Structure formats: structure tokens, C-alpha cells
Amino acid sequence: MKRLGILLSGRGSNFEAIADQVAAGRLDATIAVVISNRPEARGLDLARERGLIAVPLSAKGLDREAYDRLLVEELHKHAVDLVCLAGFMRLLSANFVRAFPQRILNIHPSLLPSFPGLDAQQQALEHGVKITGCTVHLVDEYLDAGPIILQAAVPVEDDDTVESLSARILAQEHRIYSEAIRIMLSGSFRIDGRRVKLR
User: Fold this and answer.
1) Helix and strand element counts for the chain (H, E)
2) What is the per-residue pLDDT across 6-15, written as a single tens digit (0 to 9) for each?
3) Is 127 a catalytic site residue?
4) Following CA atoms 65, 16, 21, 121 in sequence, which dihedral angle do they give, to the nearest 10 degrees?
5) Sign for the pseudo-dihedral over CA of 193, 121, 91, 23
6) Has this prediction a pTM greater than 0.90?
7) Which domains occur in the chain, in start order?
8) Contact, 152 vs 133, CB < 8 A?
9) Residue 166 · residue 139 · CB < 8 Å
10) Which of 108, 127, 137, 174 is catalytic?
């Protein structure tokens, strides 16, 4: 059974959605470890409540390369097959990406390449788009730029706030992230340049 490593920085709602799919037997994988760069992250408590290994790994006082070396060591220690970023608020170094080639997933709350980086929902509202959504993509060494696996569209309502739009996007994130993990674990895809083609 394939082993997932979940990296998070906050509340862990995408982690919970993945863990629910694993627990229900709808995702043929096990969560080997949950790691957070913020020891106070609620996601770590949620992982412990589920009986999972939860590792606080603070980045304080460390540069990106040094921290990422620790992160790679921890993931290798738990024999992780696929790394899933679930609200992990750090840019990963090229060395980290090379340690897990085409084995790192991220979910982002916009239809990439639109609105990369922070505050994607706010960016969508400020630009007046009629449709936004979320994207699961492979992680490369550039910000929110790797090949796209799945996307889900979310209409923007005239009276939306950042909070209301974020909540509707999050519901779609919870749906498509596990599906993207399923695709990755099954190997039922091929990468052709920037395109991820499903078999």
C-alpha cells in the first residue's frame, strides 16, 4: 500500500478530507506521517486524534535549504511514496523537489495559472472574474507552476465575500484532491510536456 506524507501549516481541512477517504477505504493508501512547520497547527492535533504520526518541524532559525533537508529526512524515514501539500505555507527548494520527482502534489484555490501565490480568492474578486475554482498540480521548483492534474470550477456570485467564495472553493478542493491522489497512485497518467494526460 502506498504511503502518503502530508505537509500542512494550519487547520488541516484538506488533510482531514484525505484522511476520511483513506479511512473509508476509498483511497488505497495509508497516511505515513503528517508534518507541520508550525508546531501549533491544528492539523497536527487532528492527526494525533486519528492515531497518526504527527511531527512538528519548526523552521525557525533555518534557511530554506537547511529546513528542506530536515523535511526530506523525515519523509524518507517514514518511507513516503507521495508528498501531499495541504495548506503548507512554505516555498520548497529545488533540492526538495528533486528528492521526490513528480511525487509532490499541491492544491491551490484558483484555476491556475490565474491567481498564483497568496490570497487567490481576494485576487479573483478584485479582478471581477465570473468563474474561479481550484487546481491540483504537481510541484516543481516554481511557485504554483507545475503540470495540472485536476481542476474544478466555482462560479463567483455578485455578493461573494472572500469568506463565502473560499468556503465554496474549499468544498471542491476536498473533492478533487483525493481524486488526484488516486490518479497519481494508480499511475493511470502520463506527462507530456506541461500536460498531464489521463489514461
Assistant:
1) 6, 9
2) 999 999 999 9
3) no
4) -80
5) negative
6) yes
7) 1-101 (3.40.50.170), 107-136+147-199 (3.40.50.170)
8) yes
9) no
10) 108
